[in-house]
C-alpha cells in the first residue's frame, strides 16, 4: 500500500486535480438543476397549451353533440306523428323510431296503457303514473318532452335512460300521450363517443335528468363544466370532454422530454464519473510519481528498471479498462490466435480468460465463413463496425454479438482489436415480436371472417338472399339522407306478387318458396348495381333506386315485370308463371325525402295497380 503524503508534500498536479474535481461536480449539479428546471417549465407550458386546446375541443364537441341530439329528437318527433293516428299503414310500419330503446312505444291515458311497437312487455306502473301526473300538470304542452326515470327505476346501468313523452292533444285538452325510453348515448353520433366523454342531460334548473355515470356534478357545481342548450327540447347538455388524443400527445411529449432529460442526466453523470476516475487516477499517479521520485533518490538502477516494467503493465491494463463495458479480444493479425482478452469477453463466450487465450478467432464463430467475411472487409476498409455474428458459447447457449474490428500495434506486434457487444436478448426479443405479430394477424383474419358471416346473417333474408326488412329500411333511410344533402333524386318501388296465396294453397309452401327464390334471382339480374332490393315480408318486396328519376324507375320496374311475366319455372314438376303489381314514387329535387312518406305513396300506387287488374306498374308524383 502506497503511503499518503501530507497535503503540503503532495504534487501540485494532485492538488489541482482535487480542486478541478470539486469544481466539475459543482458545475455538473448546476447544469442538472438548470436542465430539470427547463423540463418542468416546458411541461407546465405544454400543459397550459393543451388545456386551452382541450377547452376548444370541448366547446366544439358540445356544439356538434347538441346539434346531433336536436336532429335526432326532431326526426323522432316527426316519426311519432304517424302514431297519433290509430290506423296502421306501411309507412307507419317502416318507421324506425330511433333512438327509442328497443323501438318500444306505449299509448297511455287516464285508464289504460297500450303497447304500439317493440317486443311485447308491460310498462312499469311508476312510468305510467309519471306520464299521467305530467298530463295533469299545467306545464304540459303538445311538444316532445324528456323526463327522468321514476325514482324506483334508478337501477344500475339505467342512469343514461330518459322517459320520452309526446302528448296527443285535442284543442286545449291532452287526454293521452305516447311514451317510451331512450338512452342519452344513442342521441350522439358514435364518433363523438370514441374518447368516452363524461356527459349529462339537465333541466333548465340545473337538475341532472340522466348521465353516463362519469360526472359527479349537479346544479350547485354546474359552472365547473361546459354546457350547451338544446333547441328541440328545453334541456341542457353538459360535458367534461377529455380528448384521448390530447392526453396521449401530452403523455408522449412528457415521456419524450423526461426521457431525453434522463438520458442527458445519465450521460452527464457518467461523464462526471469518468472525469472523476481520470482525475483521481491523475491524483493517485501524481502522488505515486512524487513518492517514486523520493524513492528513486535512495535506490539503484535495478529499482528504476522495475518501475519501467510496472508502468508498462499499467499501460496494458489501462488499454483494457477503457473498453471494460464490452468484450475485448486482442488477436494476432497473422496467426489469428488470441493474445489477451478481458473478463467481459470471457463471460460472453462462457470460458475463462486462460481457456480463451488458447483459442483462435475463427474457432469462436458459429460459422467460420462469417469470420472470413469480416476479415476480408477489415483488410479492404481497415475497420469493421457493428456487424452481427453468432458465436460459439462454451456452455452451449445461443450467443449473438455486434462485432467490430480494427488494426492496432500491441506489444510491438501487428494485431487486431475485436470488440463484442452481447445482443442475444435483443435478437430473441425481435423473434418473439415477429411470432406474436404473425399470431395476431391470424387472429384478426379469423375475426374478420366471423364478423362478415354475422353481418350476412343479420342483414339478408334467409330464403331469397335479398336484404331483410330491417336492413332495407335502415339502408334506405341513410341513402335518402345522403340524397337530401346532395340534392339528388331517389326512386322507391313497392312490389307485390299477384295471387301468391293461390300458389301456396294449390302447390304447397315449397312451391311458394321456389317462386320467391325465382323472383329474387330475376331482381338481382335485372336491377342496376346501385339499386337495392329487399324482402319486406311474405310476397312483398321493395326497391331503392338512387339517382333515378320517376320515369326511369317506372321503365326499370316495368321491364322487370315483362321479363318475369314472360318466364316459366318449375316447382315439383309443375310449370308455374309469376306476375306482379308495383307502385313507384320518386323524390323531387331534395323534397319528400322522408322514407315513411315515400313508402306510403308507393303503397298507394301499388293499390292503384291492383285495382287496375294487377300485372301492371303505377307511378305517383309526390
TrEMBL record:
Taxonomy, superkingdom? Bacteria
Segments forming domain PAS? 313-380
Query: Among its keywords, does the record have Transmembrane?
Result: yes
Q: Which reaction does it catalyse?
A: 2 GTP = 3',3'-c-di-GMP + 2 diphosphate
Q: Which UniProt keywords apply?
A: Coiled coil, Membrane, Transmembrane, Transmembrane helix
Q: Transmembrane segments in this chain: where?
A: 20-40, 252-273
Pfam families attached to this UniProt entry? GGDEF (PF00990), PAS (PF00989)
Q: Which residue spans adopt a coiled-coil conformation according to this UniProt entry?
A: 430-457
EC numbers: 2.7.7.65
Annotated GGDEF domain ranges read 488-622
The protein, known as: diguanylate cyclase
The major lineage groups are: Bacteria, Pseudomonadati, Pseudomonadota, Betaproteobacteria, Neisseriales
Amino acid at each position: 500500500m502506497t503511503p499518503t503524503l501530507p497535503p503540503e508534500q503532495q504534487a501540485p498536479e494532485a492538488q489541482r486535480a482535487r480542486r478541478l474535481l470539486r469544481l466539475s461536480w459543482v458545475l455538473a449539479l448546476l447544469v442538472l438543476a438548470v436542465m430539470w428546471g427547463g423540463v418542468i417549465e416546458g411541461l407546465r407550458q405544454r400543459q397550459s397549451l393543451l388545456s386551452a386546446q382541450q377547452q376548444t375541443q370541448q366547446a366544439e364537441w358540445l356544439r356538434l353533440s347538441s346539434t346531433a341530439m336536436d336532429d335526432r329528437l326532431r326526426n323522432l318527433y316527426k316519426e311519432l306523428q304517424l302514431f297519433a293516428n290509430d290506423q296502421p299503414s306501411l309507412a307507419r310500419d317502416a318507421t324506425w323510431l330511433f333512438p327509442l330503446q328497443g323501438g318500444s312505444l306505449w299509448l297511455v291515458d287516464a285508464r289504460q296503457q297500450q303497447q304500439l311497437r317493440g317486443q311485447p312487455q308491460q310498462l312499469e306502473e311508476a312510468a305510467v303514473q309519471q306520464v299521467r301526473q305530467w298530463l295533469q300538470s299545467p306545464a304540459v304542452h303538445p311538444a316532445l318532452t324528456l323526463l327522468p326515470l321514476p325514482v324506483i327505476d334508478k337501477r344500475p346501468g339505467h342512469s343514461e335512460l330518459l322517459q320520452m313523452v309526446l302528448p296527443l292533444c285535442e284543442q286545449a285538452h291532452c287526454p293521452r300521450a305516447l311514451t317510451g325510453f331512450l338512452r342519452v348515448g344513442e342521441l350522439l353520433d358514435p364518433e363523438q363517443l370514441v374518447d368516452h366523454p363524461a356527459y349529462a342531460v339537465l333541466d333548465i334548473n340545473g337538475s341532472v335528468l340522466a348521465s353516463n355515470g362519469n360526472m359527479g356534478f349537479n346544479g350547485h357545481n354546474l359552472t365547473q363544466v361546459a354546457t350547451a342548450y338544446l333547441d328541440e327540447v328545453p334541456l341542457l347538455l353538459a360535458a367534461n370532454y377529455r380528448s384521448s388524443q390530447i392526453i396521449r400527445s401530452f403523455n408522449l411529449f412528457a415521456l419524450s422530454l423526461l426521457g431525453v432529460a434522463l438520458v442527458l442526466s445519465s450521460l452527464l453523470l457518467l461523464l462526471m464519473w469518468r472525469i472523476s476516475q481520470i482525475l483521481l487516477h491523475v491524483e493517485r499517479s501524481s502522488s505515486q510519481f512524487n513518492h517514486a521520485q523520493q524513492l528513486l533518490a535512495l535506490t539503484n538502477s535495478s529499482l528504476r528498471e522495475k518501475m519501467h516494467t510496472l508502468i508498462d503493465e499499467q499501460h496494458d491494463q489501462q488499454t483494457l479498462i477503457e473498453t471494460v463495458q464490452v468484450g475485448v479480444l486482442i488477436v494476432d493479425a497473422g496467426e489469428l490466435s488470441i493474445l489477451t482478452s478481458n473478463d467481459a469477453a470471457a463471460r460472453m463466450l462462457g470460458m475463462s480468460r486462460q481457456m480463451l487465450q488458447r483459442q483462435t478467432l475463427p474457432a469462436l464463430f458459429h460459422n467460420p465463413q462469417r469470420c472470413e467475411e469480416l476479415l476480408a472487409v477489415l483488410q479492404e476498409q481497415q475497420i469493421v463496425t457493428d456487424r452481427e455474428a453468432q458465436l460459439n458459447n462454451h456452455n452451449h447457449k445461443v450467443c449473438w454479438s455486434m462485432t467490430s474490428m480494427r488494426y492496432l500495434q500491441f506489444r510491438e506486434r501487428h494485431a487486431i482489436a475485436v470488440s463484442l457487444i452481447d445482443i442475444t436478448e435483443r435478437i430473441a426479443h425481435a423473434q418473439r415480436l415477429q411470432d406474436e405479430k404473425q399470431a395476431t394477424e391470424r387472429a384478426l383474419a379469423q375475426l374478420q371472417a366471423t364478423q362478415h358471416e354475422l353481418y350476412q346473417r343479420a342483414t339478408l333474408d334467409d330464403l331469397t338472399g335479398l336484404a331483410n326488412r330491417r336492413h332495407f329500411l335502415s339502408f334506405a333511410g341513410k341513402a335518402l339522407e345522403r340524397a337530401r344533402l346532395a340534392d339528388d333524386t331517389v326512386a322507391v318501388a313497392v312490389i307485390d306478387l299477384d295471387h301468391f296465396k293461390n300458389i301456396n294453397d294449390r302447390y304447397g309452401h315449397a312451391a311458394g318458396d321456389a317462386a320467391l327464390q325465382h323472383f329474387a334471382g330475376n331482381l338481382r339480374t335485372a336491377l342496376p348495381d346501385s339499386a337495392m332490393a329487399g324482402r319486406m315480408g311474405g310476397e312483398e318486396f321493395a326497391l331503392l333506386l338512387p339517382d333515378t328519376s320517376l320515369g326511369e324507375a317506372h321503365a326499370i320496374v316495368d321491364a322487370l315485370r315483362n321479363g318475369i311475366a314472360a318466364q316459366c319455372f318449375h316447382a315439383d314438376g309443375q310449370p308455374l308463371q309469376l306476375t306482379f303489381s308495383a307502385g313507384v314514387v320518386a323524390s323531387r329535387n331534395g323534397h319528400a325525402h322522408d322514407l315513411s312518406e315515400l313508402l306510403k305513396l308507393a303503397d298507394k300506387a301499388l293499390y292503384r295497380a291492383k285495382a287496375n287488374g294487377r300485372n301492371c306498374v303505377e307511378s305517383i308524383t309526390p
